[in-house]
User: What shape does this take?
Amino acid sequence: MKKFYRYCPLLSLLVFVSSAFAQNTAPDINEELWYKNSIIYSLEVGTFKDSDGNGTGDFEGLTGQLDYLKSLGIDAIWLAPFHTSPKLDDGYDVANYYDVDPQYGSPGDFAEFMYQASKHGIRVIMDLVLNHTSDQHPWFQQARADKNSRYRNWYVWSKERPKDWNKGMAFPGVQKETWTYDKKAGEYYFHRFYDFQPDLNFENPDVRNEAQRILGFWMNQGVSGFRLDAVPFIIDLPKTSAEKPEHMFELISEFRRFVQWRKGDALLLGEANVLPDENKEYFGQNGDRLHTMFNFYANQYLFYVMASGDLEPFRKALVDTKKIPGTAQWAYFLRNHDEIDLGRLTEEQRNKVYQAFGPEKNMQLYDRGIRRRLAPMLNNDRKRMELAYSLVFSLPGTPVIRYGDELGMGDDLRLKERIAVRTPMQWTNQKNAGFTSADKPFRPIIDKEPFSYKQINVATERQDPNSLLNWTAKLIRIRKECPEIGLGNWQLVEVGSPEVLAIRYNYQGKSVMMVHNFSKDPKQIRIPAQAEGDKELFSLTRNNKLTSANGGFTVDLEGYGYNWFRVGSAIR
Ligand code: NOJ
Assistant: This one.
């Protein structure tokens, strides 16, 4: 027989390929896609760890804490903007795309951080704000000062005040207009965000070119990808309408082609809070635009179900956002550095979330959201915090966690707008929470109970086997034992209780299943056995094993209880 194959190479190839399929060992391109099963940790350099005692966190401080991050189990850091900036929007107002703000260290400190992160097996994704610059950026300074400057057309101008000058604000309630008169320029300029953030004009090929320069520059510094800020606004054409503008979707394909050509596995993680029927434009019909987007749509219903126990809208949001290209992926999160945007809920739904999680006016922001951390919103209720995190880690996508949430950190509502959720990381119960040796940290540290750094800090929680920190590290480990979540296909399973979400993943003949109870009352559910191998369920999160009887499994869940199961065997 061997001899026969030797003389008939085509036949031998066919036999090889078909047997590979039969054994399900065909190479799977998805396995190459690192972002599909990574845990992303978001942080700001300035609030993480200060190394030189000037009160502000820096790259050297962050580098020193890579061991902590590695032991927590994360795969990638998402760095908030760290460029030179007047910081009127906490760094989202960039004044130089090609440097590191000296407050955070030197370019050498950044390079050292990148080197050490890679030694720790941790990737770095950086925030990139392309939609606008700071008004202090030399491009804008030249553009406004001189009509004939090559930078004039890098921004969006109008001689007359456009009819919709006070429409389409990203920060309603705080921001009054989107077209503002600039005395120096003698014209109006467009700004989707604050007036000190003039929008760049992406219709101009020079601007598109420069954007590629910036992407290329940072890929050369070793970053694994970008969290692209404000994607729908980078590609919009404000002159078509400030409120419902047309979009240049092809621009996202251009970014994708560029980054992928330079670095095959570079990631574009887009910030785009869009409706389900718009997703295909952002991911691209063939998955040739953004690799990943935050699922802001589902996130709002997630907070709604946590507030109300009414699961149906969340189930629907998951189903409505299910169909995405094979290489694409959602990113799921609970809290980020901004307010929770509840703008897509009905007024009644939003009010329920406000009532439960942000009843005071001071907790709400921009007429649509809540500016609090998770732990205070949930009244520091450990059961509900576990439910929330367990849920996010079990959803079909990449979990993104925010620094300090692994400890259950609180917020400081005395601070302006979204700064409330950006207080310094709590490392120890010593002076300034071990964040800085300076007398005065650049931003106050939380010292009010029950979220004071005296209790909530890495050093204390590390010693306590029951701490949220140790629980989170365990959850990360369990999530990593379930590649089915990032790579497999999924379905919601009917378990006979409207308040329990059950999701099952199948991948290469292996299955996992997670159940979450959004009711405060205990529930008994019935999980149907779906396949021959469904004889036993092995819990990954607690010490139990269930055996199928009468075509299914009976599972008891405590109020706000959850469980993760591997189907058919204790290990993969
Ligand atoms: C979205 C960012 O998440 C937010 O923090 C920022 O203020 C705006 N984009 C403007 O860059």
Notes: The chain has 19 helices and 24 strands.
